# Entry
Amino acid sequence: MASIVKDLIEYIGISDYLPETSNVFKQFNVEETLCLPESKPDIEQIVKVISDLVIKNTKIIKTPKGTSLEGQKLSGFKVVIEGELKQKVQYVADEPTQTVHAAHFNVPFSTYIVLPENYIMGTPVRINGYIEDIYAKQMGKRCIFKNVTILLTADFC
# Structure
Protein backbone atom coordinates (compact mmCIF):
# COMPACT_ATOMS: atom_id res chain seq x y z
CA MET A 1 0.00 0.00 0.00
CA ALA A 2 1.25 3.39 -0.95
CA SER A 3 1.25 6.46 1.24
CA ILE A 4 0.61 9.72 -0.63
CA VAL A 5 0.36 13.26 0.74
CA LYS A 6 -1.95 15.77 -0.96
CA ASP A 7 -2.90 19.15 0.54
CA LEU A 8 -1.33 18.18 3.90
CA ILE A 9 -3.47 15.00 4.18
CA GLU A 10 -1.73 11.62 4.15
CA TYR A 11 -3.64 8.93 2.23
CA ILE A 12 -2.83 5.30 3.03
CA GLY A 13 -4.27 2.33 1.17
CA ILE A 14 -3.72 3.30 -2.46
CA SER A 15 -2.53 0.24 -4.35
CA ASP A 16 1.18 0.00 -5.14
CA TYR A 17 0.35 -2.30 -8.04
CA LEU A 18 -2.30 -2.00 -10.75
CA PRO A 19 -2.63 -4.57 -13.52
CA GLU A 20 -1.26 -3.38 -16.86
CA THR A 21 -3.97 -5.14 -18.84
CA SER A 22 -7.33 -6.69 -18.09
CA ASN A 23 -10.26 -7.40 -20.36
CA VAL A 24 -12.71 -8.10 -17.54
CA PHE A 25 -12.89 -5.23 -15.06
CA LYS A 26 -15.02 -2.53 -13.46
CA GLN A 27 -14.02 0.93 -12.24
CA PHE A 28 -16.27 2.89 -9.92
CA ASN A 29 -16.27 5.49 -7.16
CA VAL A 30 -17.50 5.23 -3.59
CA GLU A 31 -18.53 8.82 -2.91
CA GLU A 32 -19.89 9.81 0.48
CA THR A 33 -20.23 12.43 3.15
CA LEU A 34 -19.14 11.06 6.52
CA CYS A 35 -20.19 12.84 9.71
CA LEU A 36 -18.50 12.39 13.08
CA PRO A 37 -20.31 10.59 15.89
CA GLU A 38 -21.55 12.95 18.62
CA SER A 39 -18.96 11.57 21.05
CA LYS A 40 -16.09 12.94 18.90
CA PRO A 41 -14.85 16.54 19.05
CA ASP A 42 -15.08 18.90 16.06
CA ILE A 43 -12.48 18.82 13.28
CA GLU A 44 -9.84 21.48 12.91
CA GLN A 45 -7.84 19.67 10.22
CA ILE A 46 -7.81 16.23 8.63
CA VAL A 47 -4.41 14.57 9.05
CA LYS A 48 -4.72 11.08 7.57
CA VAL A 49 -7.19 8.85 5.71
CA ILE A 50 -6.57 5.09 5.81
CA SER A 51 -8.67 2.90 3.51
CA ASP A 52 -8.84 -0.85 3.00
CA LEU A 53 -10.93 -2.69 0.41
CA VAL A 54 -12.50 -6.01 1.44
CA ILE A 55 -14.34 -8.31 -0.98
CA LYS A 56 -17.02 -10.04 1.13
CA ASN A 57 -18.91 -12.15 -1.40
CA THR A 58 -19.17 -12.95 -5.11
CA LYS A 59 -21.96 -14.66 -6.98
CA ILE A 60 -22.24 -15.53 -10.68
CA ILE A 61 -25.68 -15.00 -12.18
CA LYS A 62 -27.21 -15.64 -15.60
CA THR A 63 -28.33 -12.58 -17.55
CA PRO A 64 -29.90 -12.05 -20.95
CA LYS A 65 -27.63 -11.84 -23.98
CA GLY A 66 -27.84 -8.71 -26.07
CA THR A 67 -26.96 -5.05 -26.39
CA SER A 68 -28.82 -2.34 -24.50
CA LEU A 69 -29.92 0.96 -26.05
CA GLU A 70 -26.94 2.56 -24.26
CA GLY A 71 -24.55 0.14 -26.00
CA GLN A 72 -23.75 -2.16 -23.07
CA LYS A 73 -23.23 -5.73 -24.23
CA LEU A 74 -24.49 -8.53 -22.02
CA SER A 75 -22.81 -11.90 -22.52
CA GLY A 76 -25.24 -14.07 -20.57
CA PHE A 77 -23.28 -14.05 -17.28
CA LYS A 78 -22.12 -11.49 -14.73
CA VAL A 79 -20.43 -11.72 -11.37
CA VAL A 80 -22.05 -9.73 -8.56
CA ILE A 81 -19.52 -8.43 -6.04
CA GLU A 82 -20.32 -7.35 -2.49
CA GLY A 83 -17.65 -5.63 -0.49
CA GLU A 84 -16.80 -3.10 2.14
CA LEU A 85 -14.57 -0.08 2.27
CA LYS A 86 -13.04 0.09 5.77
CA GLN A 87 -11.80 3.57 6.59
CA LYS A 88 -10.16 5.46 9.41
CA VAL A 89 -9.96 9.25 9.37
CA GLN A 90 -7.47 10.85 11.75
CA TYR A 91 -7.87 14.53 12.52
CA VAL A 92 -6.72 17.29 14.84
CA ALA A 93 -9.52 18.34 17.19
CA ASP A 94 -10.77 21.92 17.13
CA GLU A 95 -9.99 22.52 20.80
CA PRO A 96 -7.14 24.20 22.71
CA THR A 97 -5.26 20.93 23.36
CA GLN A 98 -5.39 20.01 19.63
CA THR A 99 -5.38 16.28 20.33
CA VAL A 100 -5.48 13.81 17.43
CA HIS A 101 -8.63 11.69 17.14
CA ALA A 102 -9.79 8.96 14.78
CA ALA A 103 -13.21 8.10 13.41
CA HIS A 104 -13.91 4.70 11.83
CA PHE A 105 -16.34 4.18 8.97
CA ASN A 106 -17.27 0.97 7.14
CA VAL A 107 -19.10 1.58 3.88
CA PRO A 108 -20.65 -1.39 2.03
CA PHE A 109 -20.86 -1.54 -1.77
CA SER A 110 -22.31 -3.83 -4.39
CA THR A 111 -21.47 -3.87 -8.09
CA TYR A 112 -21.07 -6.30 -10.96
CA ILE A 113 -18.74 -7.22 -13.82
CA VAL A 114 -20.11 -8.58 -17.10
CA LEU A 115 -18.24 -11.80 -17.91
CA PRO A 116 -16.95 -12.56 -21.42
CA GLU A 117 -19.09 -14.40 -23.98
CA ASN A 118 -16.84 -17.48 -23.77
CA TYR A 119 -17.36 -17.86 -19.99
CA ILE A 120 -18.42 -21.40 -19.06
CA MET A 121 -20.70 -21.74 -16.03
CA GLY A 122 -18.83 -23.33 -13.13
CA THR A 123 -15.43 -21.86 -14.03
CA PRO A 124 -14.02 -20.30 -10.84
CA VAL A 125 -13.68 -16.50 -10.95
CA ARG A 126 -11.27 -14.63 -8.65
CA ILE A 127 -11.99 -10.96 -8.02
CA ASN A 128 -9.06 -8.65 -7.26
CA GLY A 129 -9.67 -5.21 -5.81
CA TYR A 130 -7.43 -2.14 -6.04
CA ILE A 131 -7.81 1.33 -4.55
CA GLU A 132 -6.67 3.69 -7.31
CA ASP A 133 -7.20 7.01 -5.54
CA ILE A 134 -8.53 8.57 -2.34
CA TYR A 135 -9.71 12.15 -1.92
CA ALA A 136 -11.05 13.80 1.24
CA LYS A 137 -12.20 17.32 2.03
CA GLN A 138 -13.40 18.78 5.30
CA MET A 139 -17.00 20.03 5.10
CA GLY A 140 -17.54 22.20 8.15
CA LYS A 141 -16.56 21.13 11.66
CA ARG A 142 -18.31 17.72 11.74
CA CYS A 143 -18.38 16.23 8.24
CA ILE A 144 -15.94 15.00 5.59
CA PHE A 145 -16.57 14.50 1.90
CA LYS A 146 -14.67 11.47 0.66
CA ASN A 147 -14.29 9.77 -2.69
CA VAL A 148 -12.45 6.49 -3.30
CA THR A 149 -11.79 5.25 -6.85
CA ILE A 150 -11.80 1.45 -7.06
CA LEU A 151 -10.75 -1.00 -9.77
CA LEU A 152 -12.06 -4.58 -9.68
CA THR A 153 -10.67 -7.22 -12.05
CA ALA A 154 -11.86 -10.77 -12.70
CA ASP A 155 -9.40 -13.61 -13.29
CA PHE A 156 -10.42 -17.11 -14.31
CA CYS A 157 -8.81 -20.15 -12.69
Strands lie at 2-6, 9-14, 25-35, 43-67, 73-93, 100-114, 125-139, 143-156.
